[in-house]
Amino acid sequence: MNKAFSQMRQTGGNRSVDEITQGRRLRRMRKADWSRRLVQEHRLTVDDLIWPIFLCGGSNHSEPVEAMPGVQRFSVDMAVRQAERAAKLGIPAIAPFPHEDLEFRDVTGSHVANPDNLINRAVRAIKKEVPEIGIITDAALDPFTSHGHDGILRDGIIVNDESVEMVVRGALAQAEAGADIIAPSDMMDGRIGAIREALDRNGFNDVAIMSYATKFSSAFYGPYREAIGTSGLLQGDKKTYYIDPANSDEAIREAEQDLAEGADMIMVKPGLPYLDIARRLKDTFAMPTYAYQVSGEYSMIKAAGANGWIDEERVMMETLLAFKRAGCDGILTYFAVDVAERLARGI
After folding, report:
1. 180 and 276 co-located in one domain
2. Binding residue per annotation — 132?
3. CATH of the domain at 149
4. pTM of the model
5. 215 in catalytic set
6. d(CA 184, CA 320)
7. Does the structure show a pLDDT above 90 at 12?
8. 53 and 32, same structural domain?
9. Statement: residue 149 has pLDDT above 60
10. What's the Cα-to-Cα distance from 49 to each of 88, 149, 292, 334, rounded to whole Å?
C-alpha cells in the first residue's frame, strides 16, 4: 500500500483509490450498524460467563473487598441469594471461594476436607435452593493453610505428593457436597489424574474437572489474596509450582499432561496478559478452553474507570470479547453480573 501511494504521488495523483486497492474497499461493511453486526466474527453472550464469588462466616452478612471495588464477601445464606440472582440472569455457573478464619487454617490445609467448611456449606445450600446453576469449586489448599501456599509447606519446600493427597480429599468433600465441576488451581504434578481416579472410585463419575492447566506466577493476583485472607500470610512466593510468565511451550506441556490425566476442560490464568496462551491451547487441543479474568485485571479497570481515565463499561465489554476472539469458550470474571445485566438490556 505504501508503494502504491508513492506511485500515486509520482504520477501526480492520477490513480484512483479503486485502482490502488484493486476495488477492495474494506470499509464497505463498516458503514452502518446493520452491516457491522452482519459481519461480526465473535460475540459475547451470557452463556460465556462464570461468576466467582467470595464467602465469609456469619449469617445475613456481607462485607466489601477493599481492593476490589464492587465485590463483596457473602455469608452462606446471602450467597444463596446471589446464586438466585445469577441464575435469573442466565449465568450458567458460579465459582465460590472462601475467606476462612485463622482458627481453621493449619500448615497442611486440612480444613479443605471438612464437609462443613465454608465452600461445602455454600455448595449444599445453593444446590438445594438453586439446583439449576452449575457450581465450580477449587480444591487448592491456599484458603486453608496458615502460610498461604497452595500446597503443604515442609522445611521451606512445597511437597508435591502430600499436597496432592490433601487436594484429593478436598475434591471428594466438594463432590459429596454437590459440586458439579472440580477446578484445582494448585498446579501440583499429578493432581488431575489423582482427583479423577478418586472421583470415579467413589461414584462421582459425572463430576467434571476444569484444570487450571496454565496458572502463571503472576503479579495480578494481589486483590484476590486479600479477598480470601492470604495476603498477609504468604511466606515466600509460588514460583516453584506456578508457571514462569516467560514460558509458553511449558504451558502447552502442562495442559497436555492435564488432559492426558482426565481433565474435561482447561483454563488459562491470568487472562488478558496471556491471550496468546489461550489461542495456542485452543488451536493445539480443540478442547473446552476458559480464561480467568483475575482480580488484578478487574481492579485496574475499576480504578481507571473511577478516575475517569477510561469508559469502564466499554473496556469491560471489550476485554471480555478479547477472550472470545482468543478462542475461549467462557470466562471467569467478577464482571459477570454487570455484563449479564447489560446483555439483558440489549446493550
Report:
1. yes
2. no
3. 3.20.20.70
4. 0.92
5. yes
6. 23
7. no
8. no
9. yes
10. 13, 28, 10, 9
